[in-house]
């Protein structure tokens, strides 16, 4: 429980001393619990014996080779955790889970709605023995509403939640955003909600509570100004490629050898852009003198800017824009992103020496604290790597472990 210091294997993070029981899998839950682990919490990842998290099989690519290889997808969201194989379909396995839950500050799960209740492991089943428990359930549609039992996958959520209606080129097919945004977004909301509940528990009477987070709710919330544009105008926004509905020029332009992104987010940048492109005629054109006029007349402005950038290489365009103080960037691939000196200075690559898969590199934590830093303390664990060690910490002896193996609660290996 909170306040009980544990071995942090390095500098203590802001959540040092808290225990998280992670009964989630795939992306949304593991992304949430990885953030809690980065912040210093002790995270115990409960996995199905012999199979584990589905993402362990989502390869290639992988770190390492053969049976010891670790899926890159799995590794991306499972650092700072210990893996315990536990069969929740068995009575003995559920009893062990309840023992672990009695000592936990937080439980995170993303089983289908109602599954944990069927097992007797839902919040009402656990809170009597652990009144301070924060229990976070993550699902596709939430625990109430007409669609609570429907299947949910990220691409479905991006479609149903509106993002695919505004992603892609004008007149083109709808496009899924390249990362599972619905999962990552809901995982961030879950983390935020857990931290708020922990704070309320400490400031209040010590009581915990249940949190319900859904992927669809997260997508609806993330539509933000696009939804507000619809509410204000009555017109659903459509696909605009990289363009912005409220600002222009704020988009990607094709050059002779690639693309450059320009962000004229205020009227102060407009004269500088015209000077950089040697287009005094655009600066003198009253149709473009304010952002509002440029937005209203973008059909006339865009072709002129397209033609100007088409005469330049990406390097030439960036040089000119930089000289005139116009915000701009190349469009980078992953290799270029993680070769960036700025990201290196910020420690945005976490490196591990995995005991079977060898060297690993994954994105680091973007949260930086002056006194209680985030850390990458533990490699993404192999399946069941810590089963016996964790159970022994909770009082299970040799005889208890042998009995759990006999009853099919933990693997016998």
From TrEMBL:
One of its GO terms (molecular function) is CoA-transferase activity. Keywords: Transferase. It comes from Halorubrum saccharovorum DSM 1137. This is L-carnitine dehydratase/bile acid-inducible protein F. It comes from the Archaea. Residues 356-387 are annotated as: Disordered.
């Amino acid at each position: 429980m909170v306040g009980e210091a544990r071995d942090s294997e390095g500098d203590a993070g802001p959540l040092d001393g808290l225990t998280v029981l992670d009964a989630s899998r795939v992306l949304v839950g593991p992304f949430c619990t990885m953030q809690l682990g980065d912040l210093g919490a002790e995270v115990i990842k409960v996995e199905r014996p012999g199979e584990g998290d589905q993402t362990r099989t989502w390869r290639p690519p992988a770190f390492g080779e053969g049976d010891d290889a670790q899926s890159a997808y799995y590794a991306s969201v499972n650092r700072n955790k210990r893996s315990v194989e536990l069969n929740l379909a068995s009575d003995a396995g559920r009893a062990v889970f309840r023992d672990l839950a009695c000592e936990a500050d937080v439980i995170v799960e993303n089983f289908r709605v109602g599954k944990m209740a069927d097992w007797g492991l839902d919040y009402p089943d656990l809170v009597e023995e652990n009144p301070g428990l924060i229990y976070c359930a993550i699902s596709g549609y939430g625990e109430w509403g007409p669609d609570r039992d429907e299947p949910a996958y990220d691409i479905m959520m991006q479609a149903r939640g509106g993002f695919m209606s505004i992603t892609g080129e004008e007149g083109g097919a709808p496009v899924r955003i390249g990362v599972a945004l619905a999962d990552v977004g809901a995982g961030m909301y879950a983390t935020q909600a857990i931290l708020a509940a922990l704070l309320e528990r400490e400031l209040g009477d010590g009581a915990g509570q249940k949190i319900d987070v859904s992927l669809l709710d997260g997508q609806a919330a993330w539509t933000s100004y696009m939804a507000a544009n619809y509410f204000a105008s009555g017109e659903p926004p459509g696909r605009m490629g990289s363009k912005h509905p409220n600002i222009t020029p704020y988009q990607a332009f094709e050059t002779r050898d690639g693309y450059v992104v320009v962000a004229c987010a205020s009227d102060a940048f407009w004269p500088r852009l015209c000077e950089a492109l040697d287009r005094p005629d655009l600066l003198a054109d009253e149709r473009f003198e304010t952002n509002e006029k440029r937005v209203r007349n973008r059909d006339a402005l865009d072709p002129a800017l397209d033609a100007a950038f088409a005469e330049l290489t990406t390097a030439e365009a960036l040089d000119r824009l930089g000289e005139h103080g116009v915000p701009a960037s190349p469009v980078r691939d992953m290799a270029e992103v993680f070769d960036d000196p700025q990201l290196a200075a910020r420690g945005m690559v976490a490196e591990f020496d995995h005991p079977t898969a060898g060297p690993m590199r994954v994105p680091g934590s973007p949260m930086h604290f002056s006194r209680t830093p985030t850390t990458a303390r533990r490699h993404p664990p192999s399946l069941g790597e810590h089963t016996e060690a964790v159970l022994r910490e909770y009082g299970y002896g040799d005889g208890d472990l042998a009995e759990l193996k006999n009853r099919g609660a933990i693997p016998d290996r």
